[in-house]
Records
---
Amino acid sequence: MRSLKDNVYNENFNEYRKYRKYRKYLGKLKDNTKDLVNIIEQQRAVSNDLFVIAKIDSNVWNKTQSTIYTKVEFEMANYSALEKIHISELEIAINKVDVTLEEYGILMLMKYKSNSEFHGDRFQTRTEEKKS
């Protein structure tokens, strides 16, 4: 039979163990919460950047994408006068989100290659694309 002193000691020790266990979990929860807040802040920054980029006219997008792809793919040195107008509009927008024209060109090339690999290195018509 245990004495009153042993019972009190065991009870206090068990409470202490529970406290340490909860404290450990609270520490992990705090770390996870910090990580989650960081992810949310990063997502907010990305969303804000997308809103800035989305304000670009669709004609500018279409013309600059093909222009940049052609320049990167065929290693052309210069843009034509008309291309420079569209490129400068794009450059103004992407500079607001801390992306250079060179980085944008690399991203475009990566996107093209990724799409090409996904579709088995062949081009699809719009009808074929809608079916898949």
---
Amino acid sequence: MGSSDKLPSVPNGIVLFNYPVSPFGRRAEHRSRLCCYQEQPFILPRPDLEKLGLKYCRIPIFAIGRDIYLDTRLILRKLEEKFPDGRLGNDKLEDRFVEKLLENAGRGSSRVLGVRENMFEFFETTMLADGRKWALKTEKPSLADIEAIWPLDWLVSLERSMPPHFVPEERFPKVYAWIARVRATLDEAKSSAPKTGGVDSGDPLGIGAGTQIEIYPADWGSEHRDSGQLVALVLDEVTVAARSRDGAELRIHAPRTGFRITEIGRRAAGSSN
């Protein structure tokens, strides 16, 4: 869609900021097909995001109205919470366990093609070997399908960049059929209004509502820090109120895992998990 003078205006207020070759963007895009797709440059600067006043520079970024969500793990979780009619997660304990395993299966390995080949082999010869349509033998795709399939689908999308013999459909017919089924049924997202929680008074960080804080990735992205007033702090999420460049109030949401929270004027509170 490219950059323009104004941010996109869509009926449900949902926008995914992404670029086509982002593997983690593919992960979020699969779960949110009814959103407005706002394509971003592969490298900085990204004028659309600068208009939001964001310092965070990783893709994808997800917006629902004035609420901005960082990190695909949080994006997927919020889609499950806010759009229950299109819920993909399972209630069975054993199925939720599998979903959690698959959630982390692709992290840290998107740069290793050999690992991806092993993943194709794994799903072809184990989970899909009995002819099931979906990962957990459900009637429709579940979060287990989304979490497992995004790195495979991303790799398939890079077909022109890979040798044709690397992960051929003839060798992995069940995996390719699975990818096709997921692609064909990822247009069922529903919309609802976002809600914001409060600040947990028992949180070990001891930071109260209204405190000016910074949030930023705990690894190499730590120089890109977003600041604002703390409005929500719970076990797995932090939310700050900030301002866009035109003065509009935004709510920036980040997961606790993998992010640091710093009270402005004091030393870093450390990585909170």
---
Amino acid sequence: MIRVRTIAVALLAAFLVLSPGAGGAEPADGRIRAALDDIARYEQQFPAGARERAANVKRAIRLLGLTRERLDGSPNRADESWLEADGRLNALLDRLNGMLAGEDSQPPSPQHSSATAPPASATSASGASAPAAEMISQDRVRIGKLLRDIRSSTETLESNGPKPFQDPGYASGREAIAERYRQTLERYAGFAGDPDVVAATEALRDHETLIRAGKENAAAVLASIGDPQAALAAIFARQSTLRPPPPPAFPYVEGSVDAWIRDIARVRKVMVEDHGNLQALADSAWLPLNRGTPESGAPYDAQDVGMLQGALVREV
């Protein structure tokens, strides 16, 4: 009985030592947790001493920039878990930049890392993965097309930026696309060690990282500025009735010039403030162009904002 208990204690100790994240601080909030997940994934994908293509390293650095934004947006920057994530992220970025600066950015050898070539023991033990040679040609074509589709969709996300995620329809549409990719990829679970399947899996993770970052950015922006359309409606309504007062007629009544100057200053102050508010909304809000006009019920777009800004500049 004592021997069994001793073995159990030893196994428990080994589990605690080897468990991922054991000994680390519990994430203080969801932003820190998501950042730690990203960091762990890229630490596994780009282990120290590994060789990787420069294009893959640059993409990882770009995506980790989003991780940095997410982490810096945490309200718990003094927490131990934030400090841990910050240190690991900085170390990971240093490693990746070192790969670009040195020979580590050269094309990888066939025996690369666990991220692209899972150990044979894990594959054989599960019996789930089949050698790449056993994949029939039709499946090879399909997985290749899936990889191209994911990368193309990722490029679209990068080109569009995070602003469109302020539109719930855009966000749900992008999530639906990613879900279709994932369902298609699950058909190849039996080829988990195949290079094309591994590449598609990594590409989908990057794709989903961009979607998650876009939604978080949109939520933060909207929490800061409120409803952009309501803010624009208020500005346009105010400016539609705000006009500089006419100058006093000659001969001047005592005090009329001073009153006119005060009115001019008041109107100019409001115009300058509204111009600044318009610029802030143009910089942060999603205002896609549309064919309608606000008078017909269409939402305000970037062109409407630009036209009012131009009019205010001329007035001021």
---
Amino acid sequence: EWVGAQRLEYLSQGEGSPTVVFNSNTDMDSWGTVLPEVAKLTRVFADSRPGHGGSKPQMGRNTGKRVVERLHTLLAETGQRPPYVLVAHSYSGLFANLYARTYPDEVAGVVFVDASHPDQEDWWHKHLPVQSFLSNVIAKETFNYELFDFEVVADDIKSAGPFPDVPVAVITAGKRWILDTKSWREQWTVFQQDLAALSPRGTQVVAENSGHAIQLQQPELVVEAIRRIVEGIRTTRAADSSRAPTPPE
């Protein structure tokens, strides 16, 4: 399905609450293995970024705020209702991070899948300038027309409000990838721990048999992380309802 004058491709299926919102780096097919399983549990939503899948290109450079507002509008226009559990992979982790800070009352949980940290580009500039250059090349190829400046998005996150007190699950790749060095792998571990520490209810697991694309190589880990958060939200909601005072007759 498509929505809006810009023609953005999206998918919404399943029933129940909370709604699980998949944030894609490219098109929504990147969640193709995970999404059908989660749709058996609750309502799911995914979209293709501008210039990918069936979504038309969006010209001009993006800020984090622009991406977040586009998603917020898209969710409303397609009839989605909070609370949301955001699921984000790689660079899209930046936008999920910012969305949770911008709309904390709408977000009930976040799953970061080998997701980017707002300080990583600065670290690369200082310690691994060649890898930093190559990473930017990869990002531009990956995001195609949807250009964005990593450091601008990182600044948007740092200037936003606090991260909400919601369950956070971090899934970290266990295998090295092409740009890895020993120092970067050690720092990436720290960055992933930082993401888990965004919330006092944060957890982290390592996908030992996966590289960066965990949702394709070990999708069951992503499904299980989502399931735990969704079931936890429902359990808390049921407990709160049982404690609610009975109105007088």
